[in-house]
User: What shape does this take?
Amino acid sequence: MKKQLSIAFAANPRTWPVLDGRVKAEGLDLYPSVVGPSELFWRQLKYADFDVAEMSFSSFIIALSKGDDRFTGLPIFTTRRFFHSFILARKDSGIEKPEDLKGKRVGVTEYQQTGALWTRGALEHEWGVKSSDCEWFMERTPELSHGGATGFRPPAGVTVHQIPPDKSVASMMTSGELDACVHYRGHKTIVNRSNLDLFNHPDIRTLFASPRDEGIRYWKKTGIFPINHGMVIRRELAEKYPWIVINLVQAFNEANRIADAERLEHCDYHIATGLLPAGAREALKTTIVKHGVVANRKTLEAAALHSVEQGLTDRLMKLDEVFAPSSMEL
Assistant: This one.
């Protein structure tokens, strides 16, 4: 008889094959729910709603460091991005380069979220801008945040203001009450209030003229493609049935393979119609989004280092503390 598991994640091309049933996890009957990530992480950290769930990597290691051992990690990484490349700044803020963020008022949806962790890590390691150099304004309230579920307190020496309920990162950016913001997500949800397209606002621009070029530069220099979300599983399930961990990773590897094949199929179509140059296929055929601890060790260890450097965890979290033992060689 197959083991039944509830599983929740945000839908994207790399998870759809599991959601729509094209990919099955051997020995498992999965009952999937599609939940927006911000809401999902809050629900899982607060209520442990699902057997398996997509999870903020930053919030997960913070919870682990504080003794919350309800879950263990699965090395399934559903989203990645060069987050610092998309810092937004007001055009009248005097911010022309990353170093100009020192002393500025910076908005963030949630201080401990992984996108913000990676942004602050890049600012510190690439340009010497430390977390304590900025004045931070956080949108999510303790009742509706990952930090509320993990007991977040601003790190020593860092100023974090709570944005009032009648305002948001978006409203404060457009009014000039904020100079910049990081990891902006302009989609109102159960836990977020911002609902404006700041990327196309006439008074606001990206700090980097070409986020794409900055992402390429960072990748070539560091070899790091920042991981945002992983997955977690109830610890008692992983310990009692270690095969579940392996079978889930294998299933999402297959979903990843399908997504890559579809991406190349779309690329071929656009080449045939003249919308892409012939060389695009060569560039896109290299898989850079991979699951597993082994392929992502450098990036995962960098995230753990940023977390302790920024005072979010009180010690450096080791990967064998974070991930299920049966996944460490995957």
